[in-house]
Amino acid sequence: MTVTSAHHGALPPSGPGPVAVSLDGVSKNFGHVQAVKDVSLKIDSGEIVAILGPNGAGKTSTIDIILGLSEPNAGHVSVYGLRPRQAITHGLISAVMQTGGLLRDLTVAETLEYTASLFARSQSPQEALNRAGIAEVADRRVGRCSGGEQQRLRFAMALMSDPELLVLDEPTTGMDVEGRRNFWATIRKDAENGRTVLFATHYLEEADAYADRIILLRHGKIVADGTAAEIKAMAAGRTVRATLPGASEALLRDVPGADTVEARGETVYIHSNDSDAVARYLLTSTAARDLEITARGIEEAFLALTGDDAGPAVSSTGASS
Question: Domains in the chain and their CATH numbers?
Answer without folding.
Answer: 2-231 (3.40.50.300), 236-295 (3.30.70)
